[in-house]
Amino acid sequence: MRRFLFLFSALIMVGGLRPLAVGQILIQNVSVVDVQQERVFPDRTVVIQDDRITEIRSNAGTPDKDVLVIDGQGRFLIPGLWDMHCHYSLGPTYSSPLMIAQGITGVRDMAADMEVVRKIRDRAQAGEILAPEIFAASRIIDGLPPTWPGSITVDSATEARQAVAEQIAAGVDCIKVYDQLGRDAFLGIAEMCKDEGQPFVGHVPYEVGLEETITAGMHSFEHLFGLMEACTSRPERLKAFQSGGRFNPARIEFLMRSFDRNRFKRIASRLADSQTW
Length: 277
Hints:
Elements: E1 13-14, E2 18-19, E3 24-34, E4 39-49, E5 52-58, E6 68-71, E7 76-77, E8 81-86, H1 92-101, E9 104-109, H2 114-125, E10 133-142, E11 152-153, H3 157-169, E12 174-177, H4 183-196, E13 200-202, H5 210-216, E14 220-221, H6 227-230, H7 249-257, H8 261-274
Parallel strand pairs: 3-6, 3-7, 8-9, 9-10, 10-11, 10-12, 12-13, 13-14
Antiparallel strand pairs: 1-2, 3-4, 4-5
């Protein structure tokens, strides 16, 4: 309850994203959505002291004069939402107010500029701004040629381990891998992350494949890229479509036509058993 984040964030802001200096806030007559118990509790009063919810009770009593009261009649109070794949640090000045207004109180920044992230975190901690909690992935670590300009490119396990060490030193929360990584470089990243207790996430590299990323301990793979490839009945033909990229129409048609439901069931079980997301 103490860390229950709430959709009414936008109602307690003044001066852009500057938090309102109020000691206690009451949200009255609101329906509280408890996602753990899968229940909705109507007509509740939520008591907020400074930056923590201290009490949720049935509506009762008259608030003190110096308490800010928000009428939640006809509205629902929910835990803060997370945007699980965004590029927040590319434009936090625009992203923060839009996200907070829509109830997004946490983001997974999937190629973070750590200098920007540190500044946002410091200002939020100091109470200067309201901003979402940021879970920051490293800069993209890719092979040659890289998919995106500005990526860290590595061509061996040694270079890969060094890149991981540098990103950990920069303060990232996880390491992000990408399409063009060679197998040796990918395994170097996996080994370094295991040694350092650092999760790694991202795209399934073309040269590796989903099954080997699971074996290597990759925490999550984005956009479901790699799933259809793991379910084809003709994996030997995949390289023929690699040059056209993920969205090559011929590649997509091939993956759909060669989809093998038994392979899918097996890979789904592996994902579940390994807690790969």
